[in-house]
Design goal:
Three copies of one chain form a homotrimer. Chain A has 130 residues and is of the alpha+beta class. Chain A has one domain (2-115): Jelly Rolls, CATH 2.60.120. Helix content of chain A is 22%, strand content 38%. Chain A contains three helices and eight strands, in the order ββαββααββββ. The first copy, chain A, has helices spanning 18-22, 52-65, 80-89, and strands at residues 2-7, 13-16, 31-36, 42-48, 92-98, 101-103, 108-114, 120-128. Chain A starts with a strand and ends with a strand.
């Protein structure tokens, strides 16, 4: 398992980590890869990376669905919305690797989703045998 | 890794791919299986397959939560709702295989979720060692 | 693959299963672990376990997003909301294991999410080679 560090710069941010993940994979490795983030207010997502407007629309819709301030929230730290967004998107992602290359679709990029930043965050990357 | 092809016939559709996935598994294989789809407006889901009304209710609620037209969407292609539904459901699914048979619950079926069809789509299936 | 049994006591409940999962792992095992639940109205989640208010806020927001009674639901059994919540949270979870210990973040716990209880439920745990 490798640990990578991510620095986010905004409260809510989708950061393209595809190159960082790709560079963690040994040449000629074939199998699969687990990305896992050990924080409870962030997530890992694979989605379109071509048009940045998609990322903006995702952030806006998640905020619409799970507003930062919601009348019944009880958690004293005040960031329940971030926990809920993290749950909906998920903190683990499996990917396929062939001869050292991530196998992604034409428009796919891997995003680190920060929902309560800015902070320094960790992701764990583990190679799996297929 | 095997590549399977899916043809969807509606704009939004949950297609039962259980038999297709099962037939891609070698006899006597024991371990696990990753299903991954390399598109950004579709997803893979395991849920009830007995009553088709469940699938209709899922489609209706996703459309209610993430309407196709939403006032702030900026993505010029106009399909941000499909990207967001794909993110909420997820593009990867792990399953357990025992002696060549998918291990599913009584009511479980595997569904390919099309959110911006109809189109021809791909799914990738990879066997993992347990 | 090991099968564990979970007994839920409420209709909707997030039950901390971290200790149960940890105790299913052999000493000195290093690799990863798949948790899979074969039911269609429950889910597996990793999120904050320190403040129980987070779990209450998650349950309340999921109920707000996907109300138990929704005008267009057709499924005769009446539990479509539980199927939809299960889909949004997901029925599989990958975790990393190092020398017999689950690798979790500081605040992370593993939760079994019951959305249509109380019932006796199963989870399957499978070790994977990394």
């Amino acid at each position: 398992m490798q640990q990578l560090q991510i620095t986010t710069s905004q409260h809510t941010e989708l950061q393209d980590i595809t190159a960082k993940i790709q560079s963690s994979i040994p040449d000629d490795y074939t199998g699969s890869l687990l990305i896992y983030t050990p924080h409870t207010t962030v997530a890992i997502m694979v989605n379109e990376g071509a048009d940045p407007a998609v990322q903006g629309d995702i952030i806006a819709m998640l905020e619409h669905l799970v507003p930062w301030k919601y009348e019944t929230f009880q958690h004293a730290e005040g960031n329940s919305a971030a926990h809920i967004k993290a749950m909906l998107v998920g903190n683990d992602q499996m990917l396929i690797v062939n001869q050292g290359r991530l196998q992604l679709g034409t428009w796919e990029k891997i995003f680190f989703c920060e929902f309560d930043g800015p902070r320094t965050r960790k992701i764990w990357v583990q190679l799996h045998q297929s």
